[in-house]
Amino acid sequence: MPSNFEKAIHAIDEAHALDPRKVQIEGQDEPYEVHYSKKMSDYLQKHNPNATDTLRLAIRAQHLRRWEVPRDSYAMSKTGYHLWRTYLKKRQAELATQICLDSGYSEEDAHRVGALIKKENLKQDAETQILEDVACLVFLDDQFEEFEKGHDEAKIINILQKTWGKMSDRGHELALEISMSERARELVSKALTN
Question: Cα–Cα distance between 121 and 41 in angstroms, integer?
Answer without folding.
Answer: 21
